[in-house]
Every structure is written in structure tokens, then in C-alpha cells.
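Technical annex B. To support the medicinal chemistry partners, we prepared a structural model of the target in complex with Broken Fe4S4 cluster, based solely on the information shown next.
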Amino acid sequence: MNKVIKSADKAAEKIIKWGEAHNIETCFDRAEKLKPCPIGESGACCRVCHMGPCRLVGKNAEEEARGICGATLPTVAARNLVRMIAAGTAAHSDHARDMAFTLFAVASGETKDFQIKDVRKLYRVAEILGIEFGNGRAVNDVAKDVALKFLEDFTRQKGELNYVKRAPKKTQERWRKWGVTPRGIDREVVEAMHRTSVGVDHEPDHLLTHGLRTALADGWGGCMVSTDITDILFGTPKPLKAEASFGIFKEDEVNLVVHGHEPTLAEMIVDVTEEPEMIAYAKSKGAKGINLGGMCCTANEVLMRHGIPTAGGFTNQELGIMTGLIDALTVDVQCIMPAIAELSKKFHTKVITTSEKAKIQGAMHVEYDEHRAKEVAREIVKIACDNFPNRTKEGSHITDKFPVIAGFSHEYIEYMQGGRWRASFRPLNDAIMAGRIRGVVGLAGCDNPRVPSTGLHRFLAVELIKNDVLIVSTGCGSAACGTAGYLTPEMALENAGPGLREVCEAIGIPPILHIGACVDNSRILTIATAMAHEGGLSDEIGGMPAVGIAPEWMSEKAIAIGCYFAASGVPVIFGGESPVGASKEITKIMTEVWFERFMGAMHFEPDPEKILSIALNYIDAAREKLKLRKYEPGKFGAERVLMDMAARRELEKKSAVPHAGVGG
Ligand code: MSK
């Protein structure tokens, strides 16, 4: 891989070069200047009290180094990791809490600007939660009960999270056996912070066990609750066409970009940008219309449901401003670089913070309030329109863009394998059993300026599909694939191995399925659960020929996600240096011990070639253990014939009940 380039995305690289020529600093330059501290990077720095910070280094640090209080290196490394898990869990879960409040506000009529768009999904969730629905019960009453039941998950002190029962029985049994079943989300996060404060929990395995319990509160709590409520309120995604990269910005229209993670305000902005009054307002300022785009995971949310184009992931946020074409950039929470406020001053872009939780010095603040959501959205659109006449020629105008097919929810993946009346995961399981599909990889996580950004995602995406591995992608992993032009069915024709290509051609899907934002990694848990229930593979999540990869991760949220996958039974490989690399004991617990207990593991491996071989080894070992046909490219066993689109439509035509779309 070419180390001189800063981004593997050609359009991004062009803007970076333009910035260098104009003396404009970005995260890529700062990453070059600011090398990570090797002690902190490997987990050997303890900062939990003010006797230190203590650096546990030296020749025999694992055995001999001690902090002032006597804490060992494994204790310090474990504590640091658990704190990362707690922070990641808090971020996803606080987002989920706000989604639950919004659902409650909608159901109780406190806000009139949102409606429940997916009643089928509401009922599916109500059924899982044991809430009465149908039989004349008002939809809003069901929604209110669902919101309250989810809110219980945050404050519960004893017992189990509602969605624990959604996991395969055997997976649940493992959790109970090893004491990692999460009780309440807030309780696990608070306890993680308590245990890791000075002088409390010092036994590394004991600490990490609570780390897993906290991470499971994220996966089967925060993330899953957030995904489900977002589907209920704004619709369960189904495939649609969109575009990706910087070429989505238009020279003659007002360019407004939504960035961050929470979809509520962004949904409202989608609505109001279509209002004739707003379009007329944009025209009154000399623009031909309003062009809405996204970045990071707010982008993924509105891309999945409305086909709003994306300018890419985390490392593209400064570069977007440097095109000189963004009139306003609204940000909500998470993964927003504070650098954008200062950078925007060199251009005409207005950066607008919108969450009561997140302000940036130098940015405008227009606070979102769900009770007057439409009003706030209109105010923001007007700010963007008012700023259009201030646009100058300054900027690195880029025209590159790629088509994208996104919107593969769990429910649609089920539907695409048999239509509404025969929806199941049977064809996927059969294709894996026959060796047509070697296994499944979740390609997720951030993009990172410390490597040629998006390059590791792109390398692994191509190599995995060549090896007949089906990819489900989320977050900035999806953005990395989208801005490379990989999220199209043509990608299968050109790059996939023979078995995967056949499957993709039969169903008409890309070999990389964009399943949503980072909270939507929970969809991978529900997909794996459905595969376990379907039969023929493993009867729990552990033991499936499936792996998670986050090759460019940088966020604490990614650590929480990796750990909830590991505890659920999925081996996970993260790129970059290990945040616990200083301790052999912690590394062993997270790989060997976790694999024995949960059939999942968490590895850190900077070399992308090695990431690929570790992933394929896990997949092949799982196939062997399940006594599946040995994978050989181009040689398959017998399996059921996959239903193509025409056959699916035929079946639906014959049905007496009209197809009502995919709704959960
Ligand atoms: S935005 S957590 S950089 S995936 Fe979800 Fe991207 Fe990582 Fe943020």
C-alpha cells in the first residue's frame, strides 16, 4: 500500500493536496505531526488518580512494574479498556435514550412533527417485548408502552435487559454462566466507572468480565433499542439508490450537510427541504434549489431511508468544507471534529451545532427541540439559504461521485431471500453450507488519518469478496466502500468469487450490503441470531463462519462494539496498534479465554494482509467444526435454488393479500 498518500479515496486525496498547496491544515497533517504516545497507546499509562499518571514500563513491566498504589500492568491495561467500553456504551445508549424519549413524545402527542412510519415494525418489537398490540388497540398506546419498556432498560437495577431474550438460547446460557448478562444500561456504565476508579477492582479477568457485561448492554441495549426505534419512527430501510463522494455537492444549489449520529433533526430537515416555501426561499437567494447531503452516521441514517447522498465518513468532514461548496453544516453528536469550526472561517461555511449536549467554540448554535422540530429544521435551512450568496470561488471543487445501493435492513435481507410470504434466512444458510458463500464478515468502524484513510476498508472489501465472503457493512466502513464505488451489484460481477457472484446475481444485490450507521451493528446481531434459528449452521451466534473487522477504528464506541460482538460469539479483528498491547495477560484473555468462554475474541492487528488471513482462518475453522463442505472456489454442494426477483414477484402476484412493502 502506498504510504505517501493520505487517503485511498482519490477525491479526498485531491482535496488534501489542494489544502497543502493553500497551507490549510487537516487531521491528516496533525496525524503526521502528532505521533501517539507509545505508553498510552498500548494501555500502560494509568491516569485514574492524581498520584500519577503512572507509566508502567520497563523490561519486565508485565511482572514487575507497579503504579504508586501497587497496580500491575494487566490491571492498568484492563481498567483502561473497560473505561473505553463504558464511554462507547454511554455514547450509543444516550443516543438510544433520546430516541426512546422521542418515541414517547410522538405516541403521547407531545410532538406533532413526527409520526410512526412503520407500524409493522412497532408490532414486531411489541411482540418481542410482550406488549399487547392489534385487536383494536391504538397504535400510539402500543408505541407508548414500547417507549416506556425501553426506558426501563436504562434504569433497571436487577434482572436482565429486555432484549437478552432475543439472542439464541445457547448464547444466553453462556452469558449467564460467565456472569456477563447485562442488567440495566446505566447501571453497567456506572459500575464500570466505579470498578475502574482508584482502589476498587484490581483482578484483570474480573474487570474485563464486567467490561463485557457493559458492552453487551450496548449491543443488545443501546444500539439495538436505537435501531428499532429509528425504524419504527422513520421506516425500516429497504434498498434504494443514492450517490457518494464530494461530487454530490452542487454548484448552483444551496448545499446543506447533516453530520453526526442522531437522525431526528436530520429527518425533519429532509422533510422541510422539500417544502415549496423553502425551495422558493432558496431561489430568492439566487440558488436553483436545495441540495441535502450527509456525512458520517447521520448520513447513513438518511441515506438508508431516503437516498440522501453522502460525502463520506469521519475523515472527510474537513475536506467537505474545503470544497468551498457547503453553505451550512449541521452537527448533532459524536465523531464531530472541533477543527471544523475554525476551518469553516477560511471558507463561507456556517457550522451549526444543534444538540444541547454538544457545542463547539466558534460555531453557531441552533438548539434542536423535538417539540418544535420542524421550526428548528426550517431555521437551519434558511441559514444555509441565506449563506448561499456568500459563496466564493474559493475551494477545491470536486466532481467525483459513485452510485450506491444501500438500505439492507435485517427485515429486507429476510425478504429478499424468499419474498414476503416465504421470507427467511434459509437460502443464505444453504449457500454457506454448500460452500457457495464461504462465510460472512461485518466490515465496520471508522476511517482513520493514521493510515491511508479508507484504504484498509477497500483492500479488505475486495479481498474478502474475491474469497466468496459476503460482507455486511456499517458506519464509516460503508462510507469507505460507497466512496470507492463498491456498493453496487456490478462490484460482484467484477470482483466477487464465483459462488458469491452467483448468489448476488440471482438476488440482484451487491456483495457488500450497507446495513446502516454504527448503532446498526445491532442488525448484525439480529441477522446472526436469525441464521442460528434457521438451522444447519451453529445453533448459537458463536461457531458461525462469521467474523467482525474494524480495520481503521479510532472511537471508544468501536471498542464497545467489538467487545459486544466478542461476547456474543463473533471473533473480531481490529486494525492498528492494540490499546492493551503492553500486557500479554490481557491480550491472552481477550483472545484465548474469551474464545473458550464465548466463542468470540478480540484481536488487534495493524497489517491488513494478516487481518485477512486471520479472518479467513476463523471462517474455515468454523466451517470445519460445523462439518460443512470444505470451501473450494468454484466447487459447490447441492442447495435449494435461490428465488430471483421475477419469481418473487410472481409469488406475490398469486397471493390474495397485496404486498405492503417491508416493514419488519
Ligand atoms: S461515525 S464511530 S467514525 S464509524 Fe458512526 Fe464513523 Fe467510527 Fe464515528
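Notes passed to the chemistry partners:
Residues 356 and 367 are 6 Å apart (CA to CA).
Residues 261, 296-297, 313-314, 335, 445-446, 475-476, 517-518, 555, 557-558 surround Broken Fe4S4 cluster (CB under 6 Å).
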